[in-house]
Design brief:
144 residues; alpha+beta; Immunoglobulin-like; YhfM-like domain-containing protein; YhfM-like_dom
């Protein structure tokens, strides 16, 4: 009986240690989104409010909620070029959060950063990058 308790205790402790090792916690996608607006970025420390697209339909909002939820926090120092896009996310609690966005090429990851936290970046998977490219290009061709 004593060995069973020790075995169970060691399993619990191992699980806790493994859980604590994951410092890549993502807190970006923790709320419901009501709209997402994207503009060409004018650089760090500013938000270009001349948005070329605003998404508020359910399918697009679900996509952006999933994109933010799956983004992986990267460790280490951040040295990024000027962002390509600014993305303003309006949450149901009337909170606006602005992100800087670097869209990777097809088959590559993209990067996102909270505008007020220029020391932390999050990577976006290749699959979400491809969908993001398609969404941005579709809106660009609609404006021409």
């Amino acid at each position: 009986m004593r060995y069973i308790r020790l075995y169970i205790l060691s399993l619990v402790l191992t699980s806790l240690l493994i859980g604590c090792q994951n410092n890549q916690v993502n807190l970006l996608g923790s709320q419901d989104i009501t709209s997402v607006s994207i503009s060409a970025s004018t650089g760090f420390g500013t938000t270009n409010t001349e948005f070329f697209v605003t998404y508020s339909d359910e399918i697009s909002l679900t996509f952006f909620e999933q994109l933010l939820a799956q983004a992986t926090k990267e460790s280490g120092s951040v040295n990024m070029p000027n962002p390509e896009y600014d993305m303003e996310v309006l949450y149901m609690e009337d909170e606006n959060v602005t992100y800087h966005l670097w869209v990777g090429d097809s088959g590559h990851n993209s990067t996102i950063m909270k505008a007020e936290d220029t020391h932390t970046i999050y990577t976006i998977s290749e699959d979400f990058t491809l969908q993001l490219i398609e969404m941005i290009e579709a809106k660009d061709t609609m404006q021409e």
